[in-house]
Amino acid sequence: MLLRGSVPCLQRMKLQYYLIELILKTGHDEVVSIFPDPVLQLHTTRSWDFLEAASGIQSNYEYQNISSDAIIGVIDTGIWPESPSFKDDGIGEIPSRWKGVCMEGSDFKKSSCNRKIIGARYYGIKEFSVQSKSNSNKTHRMTGSPRDFDGHGTHTASTAAGATVGNASYYGLARASSIDRDFKSTILLGNGKIFQGSGISLSNLTRSKTYPITFGEEVASEFTPFSEARNCFPGSLNSRKVEGKIIVCTSTDPSIPRAIKKLVVEDDKAKGLVLIDEAEKDLPFDSGIFPFSEVGNIVGSQILNYINSTKNPTATILPTTETRRFKPAPIVAYFSSRGPGWLTQNILKPDVMAPGVAILAATIPNKEEGSVPNGRKPSQFALRSGTSMACPHVSGAAAFIKSVHHRWSSAMIKSALMTTATVSNNIGRPLTNSSNHTSNPHEIGAGEINPLKALDPGLVFETTPIDYLNFFCYYGISQKKIRVISKTNFSCPKHSSEDRISDINYPSISIGKLDRNQGAKIVRRTVTNVGSPNALYVSSVDAPPGLVVKIYPTKIAFSKDSRRASFRVLFQSKEASRGYNFGAITLSDDRHVVRIVFAVNIE
């Protein structure tokens, strides 16, 4: 589907004032006049506020949002057009350059599109013929629709480009709050001990009544291995022994996901589930109205010790409560993609990180039994986690920048997001992962996106089509195939090898192999000045011990007539530790800080 209105709802600044100030300070001669666009709103989740807070930019000015004709294309499971996130109130006419369609389906009409959902299409064979043995053709029809019946596409689309919805929440959880939040499902044991587990549970259990609590292996079905009962395998538990109890399960076998474990004990009429899972304990699972709480190994062992210490262990699980202004935040989720890159280690991956845990956004109304609290209507919003939730944040941020800088290429926008990314958390320390260790660029890339800072990055790296074609050459793709792909007479450089991929004009640097006994490695970069016409950037290096990193020249000057400049970076190691070494190069003037992350593998 295609949506417009992609400017995130960044609060507490008057963006019009900021942009006017920016343009005046950068001295664009071609600017004749400046006037504010009509006000628009965006976003059903406040994770954008958390990203703004990380920018460190403060102002007393208030603003709503500038209008935008940016268009975001979402390839996903479809869209639920009735969601309030896709209302087009206050949005102007569809951009004249839009030439797409609103494809009708069995349950999706042209009227389902509007000035927010400007186009929709489903992909599949609508009609095909099959020849039978009698040589007669039979025509078969397939029905399809852009309508979403999974909720995934609706969630991602509303994150990237959804309209503002007042008091949006998931049954009261995550209400207009920031991404620095946590969802706790409290476990009360019969001995008075209290543990804060993770989970999104809308149960009606209270402190006033407790229930027997037991370990899965203690209620195993006959002839079932205890290892399966501990993990709550389907069919592994004795339903007669499970009924009326809170069951404790482990997650030592990853083949059985949490949703299945929950269904296993729920179908056996248990009163609740406590799951011991170190890996996923910080990723809240939505169990609907069924009592659920997830803990790590340390808390889990204490709960099991209590169960083994008394003849009649009891417990209860309270409904989920929201903890706001949680610290530290953000952290790298366990499910986040890690580097180094599989295709080549001479380009740093990942590029950046973005919010992806417990993101509130639109969904299809879930009417399944056990998902809606008594007396409530199905929620139009849901809390979801995953890289799928992080991706639309980056898409929305890119469209936000494009709406301000109409002429910037995708590469310039990507560069702006990378070189201005945040590398510290909300307590001012380096970003950490789910194991509470300091994260490295193979986990966070350049850092977490900072859309507001990315509006004014100072310098950008323009990765051109030639860079991408050179990549194919360096990677070993034949020139003949490259010409077919590019439909040009492109010629590969004379000396093409994989280590030259490091020279592609990317906003970060990665060297997949640096032999400490074979001298220095030099990589080259070219930057484009998009800030003040007359600027002087001074370089500095943050490198690990034993790795020599030098920049030539150390100072880069720009003028009105010279907006591009090249520089070289020398890497040499005779004493650095083997394996990957990480650091950063910084180019700064009196206003901008351009940070280029590097990763060097010492052999």
UniProtKB/TrEMBL annotation:
The active site is at 76 (charge relay system), 152 (charge relay system), 388 (charge relay system). The keyword NADP does not apply. This is Subtilisin-like serine endopeptidase family protein. Keywords: Hydrolase, Protease, Serine protease, Signal. It comes from Actinidia rufa. InterPro entries: Peptidase_S8/S53_dom, Peptidase_S8/S53_dom_sf, Peptidase_S8_Ser-AS, Peptidase_S8_subtilisin-rel, SBT, Subtilisin-like_FN3. GO terms for biological process: proteolysis. Belongs to the peptidase S8 family. Residues 69-175, 327-432 form the Peptidase S8/S53 domain. Residues 503-600 form the Subtilisin-like protease fibronectin type-III domain.
